[in-house]
Amino acid sequence: MSYAEKRRHPRLSIFSAAMLVLQDEGFLSEVKDLSQGGARVALPRNWNLPIATQCQLFLIFDQETVIGLRVRVVRVGSDDLGLEFMPDQEERVAAVLYESRFIEQE
C-alpha cells in the first residue's frame, strides 16, 4: 500500500504564502497542499526545529484573508514539512479549505 493510499484525508494541491510562528520567531514558507487533517509546506529557510514542535501556521490567501491554525510538525523532509492540525479547530480548518478553492493550483 502506497503512502498516499494510507492517508485519512485526500490532499488538495494549492499554492499559498504561509508563515510558521513559534513564540517570537517567524518562518516564511508556502503551502504546497492541504487536507482536513494537515498541510505540507515548503521547508523554511533556517528551519532547525524537530518533529513534534507545536507552532502557529498562518495561511495568507490575500491581504484581507489570513487564517491561523495550531499545528504540530509530524515530518521534516529535505525540502518540506508535514504539519498536522491540532484538535478542536474544525471551523478554522473548514475556512481554510473553503478559501483554498479560490487559489490557483500548481
Automatic annotation (TrEMBL):
Residues 5-91 form the PilZ domain. GO terms for molecular function: cyclic-di-GMP binding. This is PilZ domain-containing protein. It comes from Tahibacter aquaticus.
